[in-house]
Design goal:
alpha+beta; 5-stranded mixed sheet; 8 strands; 49% strand
Length: 97
């Protein structure tokens, strides 16, 4: 029973970063969704090691953010996304065409 509880708790902390599109035009946007964070805690969103926003994980431990390359001054190419909260760090990437 204890192992089952621990396994269920760990499953809730699985990290997943998803984008509505991994290739986006410079004037377009992509929606980021990431899960596995502690509910109600701040999550720092950085793109290419530059802090973009501090989000708050919802009651499910998920954060959402719309990335607009033109608004962030992101040029063509691959961009690394890092989400950090307490001891949890998740990463992903997308490309601007």
């Amino acid at each position: 029973a204890v192992r089952a509880k621990a396994a269920a708790a760990l499953t809730k902390l699985e990290h997943r970063v998803e984008f509505s599109s991994v290739v986006v035009s410079g004037s377009g946007s992509t929606k980021l969704s990431a899960q596995g964070f502690l509910a109600g805690h701040p999550v720092v969103l950085a793109i290419d090691k530059h802090t973009v926003a501090t989000l708050t994980a919802n009651s499910s431990g998920t954060v959402h953010f719309t990335i607009k390359p033109v608004a962030l001054g992101l040029g063509r190419g691959k961009h690394a996304v890092t989400l950090s909260s307490m001891l949890i760090t998740s990463t992903g990437s997308f490309r601007v065409s």
